[in-house]
Amino acid sequence: MTSDDVIPAPLRRLWRLPESSRLGRPAALDVDRIVAAAVEIADRDGLGGVTLPKVAESLGFTGMSLYRHVGSKDELLTLMADHALGAPPDLDTDDWRDGLREWAYAQRAVLQRRPWLTRVPTSGPPSGPHQIAWMEVALKIMSRTRLDWANKVGALMLISGYVVQSVRQYRELAEGRAEGQGQADAERDYGRAMARLVDPARFPETARLFSSMLFEAPPPDTPNTEIADADFSLGLELILDGVAVRIGP
Amino acid sequence: MTSDDVIPAPLRRLWRLPESSRLGRPAALDVDRIVAAAVEIADRDGLGGVTLPKVAESLGFTGMSLYRHVGSKDELLTLMADHALGAPPDLDTDDWRDGLREWAYAQRAVLQRRPWLTRVPTSGPPSGPHQIAWMEVALKIMSRTRLDWANKVGALMLISGYVVQSVRQYRELAEGRAEGQGQADAERDYGRAMARLVDPARFPETARLFSSMLFEAPPPDTPNTEIADADFSLGLELILDGVAVRIGP
DNA sequence: GGACAAAGTATCAGACATATACTAATGCCG
DNA sequence: CGGCATTAGTATATGTCTGATACTTTGTCC
Fold first, then answer.
1. C1’ C16 / CA A52, Å
2. Distance A179 CA to C10 C1' (A)
3. pLDDT by residue (tens digit) across B33-72?
4. What is the DSSP string of A64-118?
5. Does B246 sit within 8 Å of A242, measured CB to CB?
6. In 3D, which of B96, B100, B28, B104 has the Cα closest to residue B66?
7. DSSP 3-state assignment of A119?
8. CA distance linking residue B29 with residue B33, whole number of Å
9. Spatial separation of the C-alpha atoms in residues A53 and A73, rounded to whole Å
């Protein structure tokens, strides 16, 4: 008789709280199967391929059937995001910096495997069980520091946002020049086009940036992933430096 | 006879490169008017209110007419984003830290005025004239530092991403409990619901976080904007600390 | 003045989210 | 053992959207 009643329906579904009644026709469908099917489609066809008719069809039902289990398409996306995120790794490190770094890399690995996750329109702060589980890991990593809650949450959201942004950016560049031989070439094409548009008189610094991108290309035998890793690491360590300043000795 | 030809059409439109030919029927419509009308609608009704038919109607044309000037709806969104961002402020500071801080706050002000900007699906790295102009300002601010390009761009993207994320988060929380007396209350509602769901046995740290959110509420006479400003400043200064480490003395 | 080329329009197809009203299946109570 | 309340899934329909295609209009240039 805990007052679960006050918990809104979308949250109840997100946390898979059991639906009380056992009356009426039993359900052949449930939230889990719907979400799993939707995620499978997203993995295959991207987020754009996920529509209620297609998800239902892949399960052998009509489009409307989903509305018995999922309030709306937006809610389905939220459910998918939490499901696809999955459980966090167990990170038991004494060193907060190593811990947060591993946490970030783990999150990055998930997003790289499911790029569509970076495009799910986030609605509100973390609220799904997996999101909370990841949050818990990060908070535990920081638990020995003297940071207050605001700083912990701030750091955590900052890292998380950075990971999403950087994975998305990388994917977009890579997809931009579709099949164009990976990211390095796409970056060159981008630089070339921009170098034509950016007038050095109006945008001196930016113009120098773009020409440096064209001329100071990395050695051609460097694998794309190494470039991306280096860029990612750069920003991440910058954030961690910032956290370190806050934590002190 | 510069080879503008190689610049793809979407970029030509984004930079308003003049269309060469003067043959045929003269255009009553142009990219600028379309984009301005679309932005006006977005300002009024949000991003969801922007559809090609509605934009065209507001100009007294049929929906299909827009396709003569804008390749697709996605492209229109890109055009809108750059237009709505507007020109950056002139920030002439010797101190890079003050400069970047002002830059971030200026960007935040723009996004707060047009929250839909935080939800435009970004496609690719900055490429519009206004985006480049903002970039130029940030690069100029950092020009006296000894940072290399990768670090400058990294810092700049990091700050920019942080601003977007934090404005969006704030707006979502505020809208979440619609008309519910602003952000502070919404945050309380969120905390209350989560406190019920987060099992202290499985998520000890997170549970403590949520209960602290409920009990350590800020003094009730604190204006919402002050809380938001404090949160924003926290993350921003953290990033700037990280940049400072990179720059050195 | 007439051919031409581009602008704007009309019509159309294919999807999609979602409301409403309907049919079907099941457990419970009598 | 039967029927009813209750819930699951379905059928149908509406309004909307993006974008394709083909047509009409309106200027310019020879």
1. 8
2. 38
3. 999 999 999 999 999 999 999 999 999 999 999 999 999 9
4. GGGGGT-S-HHHHHHHHHHHHH-PPP----S-HHHHHHHHHHHHHHHHHH-GGGG
5. no
6. B28
7. helix
8. 7
9. 11
